[in-house]
Predict the 3D structure of the following.
Amino acid sequence: MATKPKKSVSDPIARSAAKSIAAASLESKSASERKTVLVTGAAGALAKRVIAKLYGQYQVIAVDFRSKVETDAGIPSYLVELHKRGFEDIFNQHKIDAVIHVGRMFTHEKTPQQRYNANVLGTKRLLDLSLKHGVGQVIIHSSYFVYGASAYNPALLDEDAPLKATEVTQDLVDSVELESLANIYLWKHPQLNITILRPCNVLGPGVRNSMSILLSRPLAPVLVGFSPLMQFLHVDDMAAAIMLAFDKNLPGIYNVAPDDYVPFQEAVTQCGCRRLPIPSIPPALPKMLSNLLNWKAFFPPYLINYFKYPVILDGALFREKFGWKPRRSLNDIFSYYRKQKLVLSGKP
Amino acid sequence: MRSGLNLKQRLQQQLVTPEILALMARMPKPTGSFGYDAWGYNEDAATLAVASLKLLYDRYFRVEASGLENIPPRGRVLLVSNHSGQLPIDGLMIGVATATNPHGPRAVRGMIERFFPTVPWLGNLMNAIGGVIGDPVNCSKMLAAEEAIMVFPEGVRGSGKLYKERYQLQRFGTGFIHLAMNNDTPIVPVAVIGAEETMPALANLKPIAKLLGLPYFPLLPIYAPLPARMFIHFGKPIRFEGGRADESEISERAAQVKESIRKLISEGLAARQSVF
């Protein structure tokens, strides 16, 4: 969809945001006066791209729970768990103006309990510390998983559609609760200027979510007779979306998705995978197989429904309000996975 | 899987004529880079479906359509029809009539029952040829996207009725009036003649229906559609002003549409010379 950035500049919030961006770029001359942005999940492909875009204009602080990230000169990097006590030290040592919360413990990392602690309690602590230390803007990176994959889903879900992920599985409790927490802080503490982004499947070089791991495999499990429609976004485009949300500062909840769609099995084939048909009846069978074969990294038992029923987002609000349009097509995204396989197999 | 593709390609070669391709190209139907829209409609699948159903349309049911000029060539529209014949053959034939309309072909969207997406292959297939679960969100989003939607306000009350009740319109739901008013959409009344005779149900075997989880299960002389000649009449578009209206006004408007369909049916029945 063609979007007109002019439209959003005409409203007062956007204009004031534009002013603050202009101010920020003026400040970039004196390093000491640059705004400070804390980015979580810094070891991940998405946060790395966001940090690269922020670098130079802002003072960046990189945080991750997995590893201490090797960063460019002048970017302090911390290995810290958000829900642990040491996290506040960062807020004491730096005057943080904004937080971009990309870091998430994926569903295949560690136990559900650890995931809950990191994602829900960690986010709560991040928001509390932001409040305490006067952070003026928070971007939260959520997921389309929150809507839940149900046979009864209409297509083009709006941001106000009910979040039914937990109807299907308790394993996604953390992603839904993280969102409801962020929502509470969004209306209770407007000074935090919280923007929640719900992207569709994000793919591309370095991305380690379950869909990306699955499409990187030569053999990809698919459910017999089910090929749900999906949306995919290149990680560069998602990084651009986060930057736009950060620059324009229009608090709220936004789906981030292109208006282009492809069935899962077509995507699998386009990525150069061979399809491994998994019997879909009885419904418990694919879950059992996933458990048995320990496929939790790319075909986890609690995500089976997302390989069965579509969760299609209406991304029009974000596209129009922020003037965002993905630059990479579906074919651009898939060709990365195709080429990756050719390189691995040693063929030219 | 490869043999499946070959079969599809072979079917495409045999069935899809240049005329069908030309009609599909004229349809005002936007799709993405892989030929899909947000509801799973797929150009290739729809083309193949129109091409194969056109054979049934021309040779088996020998459908004659009239009033095709009443379907707007582009822009949102609700096609509201009587429903009959146990299986949704009437819907498929309306789909072929609109897809091959010389005044402007349209890809018409049908509302499917909510259990279809849970059926392997069938769910995806029905989406690919234009079927969508009958959710109000789907309907209003599709109308906003200037789609043509087919509605059977009688639902299973119409399709499941017995042969002795043929051409008697059953109770109309009023959802389509709300949709039309909220989305400023014209209604084209449609009457299908002949579908009643394709599957003349003598009784509804309720225990079997219950056992199979189906809305009804007909007792039929033969469990295959009979080659009854079908006639589809499209009436003049009806427009209702938007804004607030209470339920009694909504029901009145639904009754008005029902009356225009009833009129089309009685004219159609009077003009019909033989059932087969």
In short: Chain B has one domain: 2-271. The radius of gyration of chain B is 18 Å. The mean pLDDT of chain B is 93. The first strand of chain B starts at residue 64 and ends at 66.
